[in-house]
Amino acid sequence: MSGGQYGRFGGQYVPEALMPAIDELTDAYQRYVLENEAGFMDDLAERLETFGGRPTPLQYADQLSDRYDIDVYLKREDLLHGGAHKLNNALGQVLLARYMGKERIIAETGAGQHGTATTMACAHLGMPCEVYMGRRDVNRQRPNVFRMRLNGASVTPVDIGRGTLKEAISETMRDWAGSVETTHYVIGSVVGPHPYPDLVREFQSVIGSEARDQCLEKLGELPDAVVACAGGGSNAMGTYDAFLEDESVDLYAVEAGGDSLEIDREAGVAPNSATLSTGTEGVLHGSRTKVLQDDDGQIMESHSVSSGLDYAGVGPELAHLAEEGRLAATPVDDEAALAAFHRLSQLEGIIPALETAHAFGFLEERGDDLGDTAVITVSGRGDKDLESVIEESFKRDLPEAPDLSLFTTDQGGR
Ligand SMILES: *Cc1c(COP(=O)(O)O)cnc(C)c1O
User: According to the CATH classification, is domain 5-50+86-200 in 3.40.50.1100?
Assistant: First the structure.
């Protein structure tokens, strides 16, 4: 196999039944995405502009720049249709499926963000869509379940196991193995077997290529630091890609430090999702990468206050770049991310997704040694997180949080 290796990481660890689909997708990726056959990439760019709202702005952040004494620029993916970067990839893959002559889309989703972006793309392109979601997640993420249903998709709860993302992925794989002729499986991050990590990076690379052009146009030079949060790593890889060859630009991946970085591998529980920082080499979801696993190689339950970062693996290319020293992975814990959520809301009038807030927690901790200019990707907006932020801030008595006492219930009958 030629493609899909990033040093020791990557590859195609899939059942034989899926190989024809993987080969077909690899071929379509080469032709439509890399060679722009039939004008595919032009079609996608047009739709990202008119349906998605691209290009997204690169915004100078006055208050943050003052606070950290460094020029901070924000790449505003929160302004993309749907409120996060996820549409870049979902629209790309669903359109690719249409060019490939597929008739049906399947996807799996945990918190529902990737599922929602996929159903939006499917409605836009007139493609039937089925989203698998663990039963427990269906109950925890009702608004996103409604969004997907409103977009005309069917949402299939998965009752096996703990009823979360892991089981939903198995169920989607099972579906795909029996439907490869007609169906495309949309993976939501730079993970999975080759060609998915490449494919998703290409679709997300519009973030960094726009940002790099915008830097040259606005500043006349490249930034010293580029920062993004990393769960699976798609907004991070999409941001870094255009800067990889620019040796003067330092790349930072901010991971979910959760409650603690201490992992009890015997007990099989990870109180974080900082896979690059605390994981070990293994195979997860079709590729060799860094994973959170116990002493027997079983995937551990991970933890983060932000559901979008709560994943026991990470994209193989990120694992490789971190190992090579091209990017620095840094964990930011739940509390620092929550504080940053409030800070960004108060200082800049931007309520970020909790995932995104981790990148700003990093700015608070490391703002001093990032050079003169930093670009930070605002991967998404925080409307989806308001309930949990209020609850968590209350519980922790966060000094950064506004006075939330108007929500107390002891109002004596009023
Ligand atoms: C899903 C999500 C993430 C994490 O996914 P990556 O693939 O690591 O980008 C980060 N931010 C937001 C807003 C998300 O919705």
Answer: yes
Q: Is 86 in the pocket of ligand 1 (CB under 6 A)?
A: yes
Tell me if 183 CB under 6 Å of ligand 1.
Answer: no
Distances (CA, A) of 115 to 58, 184, 250, 300: 27, 14, 32, 23
Summarize pLDDT for 356-410 with one digit per residue, the tens.
Answer: 999 999 999 999 899 999 999 999 999 999 999 999 999 999 999 998 777 666 5
How many beta carbons lie within 10 A of that of residue 297, not counting itself?
Answer: 10
Question: Options 3.40.47.10, 3.40.50.1100, 3.40.640.10, 3.40.50.960; which CATH number does 55-83+205-396 get?
Answer: 3.40.50.1100
Rg (the chain; Cα; Å): 20
Beta-carbon contacts of 21 under 8 Å, excluding residues fewer than 6 positions away, are 176, 180, 185
Q: Dihedral (C-alpha) 68, 356, 211, 45: value to the nearest 10 degrees?
A: -170
Extents of the domains making up the chain: 5-50+86-200, 55-83+205-396
**Model-level pTM?**
0.96
HSE at residue 310, side-chain half, CA atoms within 13 A, is 23
**d(Cα 241, Cα 211) in Å, to the nearest integer?**
11
Q: How far is the CA of 408 from the centre of ligand 1 (A)?
A: 32
